[in-house]
Amino acid sequence: MLRFPWLRGVARPLTLIGLAVILLWLHNDDMPFWDQDEAAYAGFALQMHTTGQWWIPDFLWSELHRKPPLQFWLMAGAMQGLGWGEFAARLPSSTAVVATGIVVWRWGRGIWGEAIAQRAMGLIFASLLLPLFGKVALTDGLLVGLETVAMLAMLRAILTPHWSWSVWLWGAVALGVLTKGPPILILVLGSWGLWWLG
Asked: Which of 50, 51, 49 is nearest to 72 (CA)?
């Protein structure tokens, strides 16, 4: 008999989430920044953190790596709370990957049912690419998470229309544009156009 009845139905998902957090956060500070992109993004965030200039991302010799500021804001915020280092720089990406799995599980239950939603979350955490996005300080993990929120919100709005799904959809799109620019618009508007055409 289950000792804590409130855990019925959520023990497996909570275990998966806990394992994902441990695996994504474990040793995130042991490995130096991988390449130019990750080092440049950390440099943008460090500049924001040290100079207080939060509106225009700037870092020496990194013009090619400039992106919209959301990822840099999150990294700089983590640096303010945790100090400068690889762990703080990578924390927003790893948190975004965990949040993506949670959103797929929670919102997927209303679309496909509990069992499939749990499997989908498990596949996200066990895939090769998405967890790697959580181990580097790049925009990709956050962008995939926001694209997932937008697409699931659009699907939920189509299946069970409610104004809140539109807020989630367009909020995720706005944050996606602040993360990497137009790629999220291409995905969402292209998908909506295909659905509308029918």
From this structure: 49
